[in-house]
Amino acid sequence: MKKVVFVGAGSMAEAIIAGIVERGALEPQNVFVMNKSDDERLTSLQTKYGVSIVCAQKEALKNANLVIFATKPKDVHHAMTDIMPYINEKAAVLSVIAGVSIQTFENGLGTRPIARSMPNTSATIGKSASGVAWNQSVDTTMKKFILGLLESIGIVKEVEEDDLHAVTALSGSGPAYVYYMVEALEEAAIDKGLTKDVARELIIQTLEGAAAMLKHTKIEPAELRKNVTSPGGTTEAGLKALETGLFKEAIAECIGKAEARSRELGALS
Ligand SMILES: NC(=O)C1=CN([C@@H]2O[C@H](COP(=O)(O)OP(=O)(O)OC[C@H]3O[C@@H](n4cnc5c(N)ncnc54)[C@H](O)[C@@H]3O)[C@@H](O)[C@H]2O)C=CC1
Ligand SMILES: O=C(O)[C@@H]1CCC=N1
């Protein structure tokens, strides 16, 4: 059984740990976590998921087959310097860090198998939409292992490394856009007299229903939209307000800014 070490034990690391441990992709005793500080955080992950904490002698790093980097982009250089004396020369690396290139890891940790991925926090419940790219050194066995881990937390698409900036803008950050839309829908529904509980349930079911229609009917979204929109009806009136509010333009700007920020984070690291 392969041993995996998480460098950085924040919210994304927890989302992935929850997904892989709860779906049995790895035995918790083969998963190790380390952080810059905050022993309480590590103890809490240990209690919740049965994972182990990397000890002061860093034995787990010496024995690791895969090291997963889940720090903020600004901390990645420190993290690489911290672990470099201990990391097994054969260990592969999987990064989930926004923007930071495979080349940056090769510069910091030497040429070794390196995968760069972009999951999202829905990994917690096995529903991540992830992208992944590889360097030349990742062999078929390690690729299968990493794809298996990413598949245990949701779906995964293999893409060119440069496209990970767009994946980050779309599905990495995507859950936040959806939650923001839910906040707006909820506020508007409450304003029109619904209770928060009723509004929340109706919104969740509407999102789930629309997502399932897209997935199962394979009908184009524009066609599905037309099916909802009766001429002179309520939907038409609502959609007109979105058009007037430049909804599509705002979405294009949102993805554009997020993609550009991913590139910036990479350049800054
Ligand atoms: N939160 C999200 O929705 C997603 C985040 N990501 C990426 O995941 C990464 C982590 O994000 P979050 O978990 O949200 O951040 P976070 O701030 O919750 O976690 C980062 C962790 O890294 C630790 N750390 C910092 N320096 C370290 C070092 N030298 N050695 C070991 N640990 C160190 C910190 O103590 C902290 O616990 C980011 O690079 C982000 O781009 C990717 C996909 C989605
Ligand atoms: O906001 C961020 O930078 C990270 C990357 C994707 C989601 N959260």
From TrEMBL:
Q: What region holds the Pyrroline-5-carboxylate reductase dimerisation domain?
A: 161-265
Top-rank taxon: Bacteria
Keyword Transcription attached: no
**GO biological process per UniProt:** L-proline biosynthetic process
- Reactions it catalyzes: L-proline + NADP(+) = (S)-1-pyrroline-5-carboxylate + NADPH + 2 H(+); L-proline + NAD(+) = (S)-1-pyrroline-5-carboxylate + NADH + 2 H(+)
Residues annotated as domain Pyrroline-5-carboxylate reductase catalytic N-terminal? 3-99
Q: Enzyme class, one word?
A: oxidoreductase
Renumbered to this chain, the signal peptide range is: none
Tell me where in or outside the cell this protein is found. Answer: Cytoplasm
Q: Which family does it belong to?
A: Belongs to the pyrroline-5-carboxylate reductase family.
Give a short account of what the protein does: Catalyzes the reduction of 1-pyrroline-5-carboxylate (PCA) to L-proline.
Name used for this protein in its record: Pyrroline-5-carboxylate reductase
Its taxonomic path starts at: Bacteria, Bacillati, Bacillota, Bacilli, Bacillales
